[in-house]
Amino acid sequence: MKVEQIYTGCLAHAAYYIENNKEAAIFDPLREVQPYLDRAKKDNARIKYVFETHFHADFVSGHLDLKKKAGAEIVFGPLAKPDYEATIAKDGQVFEVGDYKVKVIHTPGHTMESTTYLLIDENGKEHGLITGDTLFIGDVGRPDLAQHVVADLTERKLAGHLYDSLRYKIMPLNDDLIIYPNHGAGSACGKKMSNETTDTLGHQKKVNYALQDMSKEEFIDALLEGLTKPPGYFPQNVLLNIKGYDSFDKVMHRAKKGLTPSLFISEAEKSGALILDTRSAEDFAKAFIPNSINIGLDGSFAPWVGEMIPSVDNPILLVTYAGKEEESITRLSRVGYDNVIGYLEGGFDAWLKAKQEFDHIERISAEEFEKMYLNETLKVIDVRKKSEYNSEHIRGAVNIPLNEINQHLEEIPKDEFFVLHCEGGYRSMIAASILKQRGWETFADLRGGFKEILQTKVPRSEYTLPKSLL
What we know:
single chain, alpha/beta, 6-stranded mixed sheet
């Protein structure tokens, strides 16, 4: 059976494409649908169905645009209640894609409408299971997201449903089934996902902690251990996926408005828009528009946008490398940030040529940091996740995770020099740009982060294996 995984690293997201006898289906598509349309065109196939495993929290799905552009039928599992036309399948219902069959298996737990899809080939052999966020490689879906949208749900109730779904719906299936999850390592939808993006069900039964022999209460406790607060944009994305949204083409058309430096300034003053600079941390540090925030395209851009910009409706003005405007708009739209109102035409070079005011952030090397640390009392702020900090950290460093920095500003001194760091320099520059915007001046960012510190004699805590990747 031909199953094609279409993986997007920024979101650690996997969509799936199947085709047989000129009929195709897409599972859990991203917002921009042209790659799926192109893929079907290559096979001279019609996209018959768009299957959704659940109302996604970490991205806006492309199902509505696929329905509009390809005439595809949108399919959700039982209990889904979208505000637009879609087929709500029954548990056990079978759909045909050419000679392939797709069987609906309702598996509530991550969310109540969560559904997995059993893939059956043209010979009637069960081939694989598209599991959405129910079962990952090495993990299962976190059960605390739907409660932020549906008031009477609790994480313990959802975890209990997930236990039943795994034990009575998935684990009795054939061990040789291939598991096709919606996410891999790096996604906030689980806590210890593998870097592998597929596996057999039989192997997962052996190595996945959530599939081991335990009581329901033990499962619930294990599942909830180490969970951190989900990103703030998750409930907003769920609602977009339930209620509907503007087409990607409309979002792109509205956002692709190049502005001269003077018009950029005027638009910023008039709209109060957030100035988002998507260049690399190194280039941003050298020179940037005052009061702008840096979240680079070269890292986990969309998830950090979702973490650090409170509302998807926030107006945004973009500063990008020349030619990266469309990519920036696309990756923002994947997580529902559709209110881009323009970008700096010609990139930051145009700003410099216009002789406009700019700011900078001091960056120091690990070697410079080592000398400072060993020769004086130095305040160090580690913006990595708690699990990273607990695993190993610079002795004396204070841990303020990046996604919590706005809630802990009073703990960061304005009259005492300090050094920010993360693992590699990406997240600490996000933090540095936020602090600069809020009026902090007396600090430096550590170029290369904790990875470079490991090459120095700076004293560190003893290493312990992290219990969670959150």
